[in-house]
Amino acid sequence: QFNREEVLFREAERLDLLLWVKRLLREKEPVPTTGQAFFCMGVLIGLRWLTLGMGSRWSLEMHTAISQLAFVAMPPIFMILLLNTRPAEGLYLRWPRGREAGLAALLALLLLPPMTGLTQAVADWFPDLLLGTHPLIEILVAIHKGSDLGTSQFLLYLLAFALVPALCEEIAFRGFVLHGLHQGFRPRNAVLLSSFFFALFHMNVFLFLPTFVLGVILGLLTVRSRSLLPAVWFHLLHNSVLIALIP
User: Fold this and answer.
1) Average pLDDT over residues 11-31
2) What is the rounded distance in angstroms from the CA atom of residue 224 to the CA atom of residue 182?
3) How far, in Å, CA of 83 to CA of 172, rounded?
4) pLDDT tens for residues 87-125?
5) Which of 38, 65, 209, 231 is the most exposed place for a label (fewest CB within 10 A)?
């Protein structure tokens, strides 16, 4: 009797993908877990790689906005709504306290000039090697070509290359990924690891250092304030200042 297959492998012990999914959806975690953060990061990098050549006929502004909304913001939003019971907390979506907001503003004020200067310097040193990897860098290269921006074009650039990336990338990296890593690592290690993934996501060795440093600053702002808003604001200011440097 013990040699019979139905006794050794009972129906309830067989791998059933549908049952596993139902159990996963039924036993939701309150906030993102470390495993979910790593999975989300893999999805983001995979989508980034798969969509590098997508929309080659689109304008740079349209390509950036659609890519950010569809392939950066939507995966973590979909995952947190599907897998977690407290999505707002899981994405650090809360207003910071007055003292926390003041410290975040002070840190942003002190670190924004050297950060924008570092990114600008990298664009000056390696203009041709950075093309095609980050839309904001392509705009900065226009400095060498002496292009001028009108008011409408400047506002369009702010929307496509400053506001949309600030919202989408912060939701993904300082929201879902950082919160998930924070569940399994110390705050310092979680910030460093999320910053490494953030730099790796942009897929350019010359951008790695400034992007990693930016990620560390944004991660510290988020962990310190327990809110995503200071990081979004700093990210928005960082990109806006870079765009404003175009003559």
Assistant:
1) 65
2) 13
3) 15
4) 999 999 988 877 777 776 777 778 778 877 777 777 677
5) 209
Rounded distance between C-alpha atoms, residue 137 and residue 207, angstroms: 9
> What tokens were used for 27?
């036993």
The interaxial angle of helices 98-125 and 229-244, nearest 10 deg, is 30
Report which DSSP code applies to 117.
H
Place of tokens 């999505």: 87
**The token pair that represents 40 in the structure block:** 């989300």
State residue 137's pLDDT score.
61
Q: Give the amino acid at 78.
A: F
Residue with tokens 């019971």, as numbered in its chain: 85
CB count in 10 Å sphere of residue 60: 15
Pair 91, 40: CB distance under 8 Å: no
pLDDT digits (tens, 9 = 90+) for 146-171: 555 667 777 888 888 889 999 999 99
Q: Token digits for 198?
A: 């953030």
Q: What is the dihedral sign for C-alpha 68, 74, 79, 80? A: positive
Q: What SS3 state is found at 84? A: strand
- Which residue do the tokens 């924008």 mark? 116
Give pTM, 2 decimals.
0.81
Count how many Cα atoms sit within 13 Å of the Cα of residue 61 in the half-sphere of its side chain.
11
